[in-house]
Design brief:
The protein is mostly helical. Helix content is 71%, strand content 4%. Strands 1-2 form a two-stranded antiparallel sheet. The radius of gyration is 19 Å and the shape is elongated.
């Protein structure tokens, strides 16, 4: 049975692994907004940033939350005022996206174990063995 640290590590690993898909959605939404600067796409983008703002802290990634809140504020201000996304707002959203990509790129090596490594649960949680190694 996994202990609390292993469970948390596994949840964080899943979160980090799923980030590429989530960031891909954000990228596509920003691209759509370049031709359609209002409408439901803005609300979808707002919800993506809102989700990252909340989930980052939950998983122990405060920088993800900070960046998510930036994107949430950018989109939220437009939604409240009914304004269109200007090119400068879209550039700011892209900057937030780049920041999120950089943060997940930084986190990924900490939570992704390649296929050539196997966690050795019989020893300390920090020890690793190469596949096929004799314990």
């Amino acid at each position: 049975m996994a202990n609390l640290n292993e469970t948390l590590h596994n949840l964080r690993r899943e979160y980090v692994n799923e980030a590429n898909e989530n960031l891909g959605h954000i990228d596509r939404l920003i691209s759509i907004m370049q031709t359609e600067p209002s409408g439901p796409t803005l609300e979808h983008l707002y919800r993506r940033f809102l989700g990252l703002a909340g989930s980052g802290d939950t998983y122990g990634f405060p920088e993800v939350s900070r960046l998510g809140r930036q994107g949430e504020k950018l989109c939220g201000a437009l939604l409240r005022t009914g304004r269109f996304a200007s090119p400068s707002v879209l550039l700011a959203c892209r900057a937030v996206l780049r920041g999120l990509q950089a943060e997940f790129d930084r986190l990924r090596p900490l939570y992704v174990i390649g296929p050539w490594v196997q966690r050795d649960t019989r020893r300390s949680r920090a020890s690793f063995l190469r596949w096929g190694a004799i314990p």
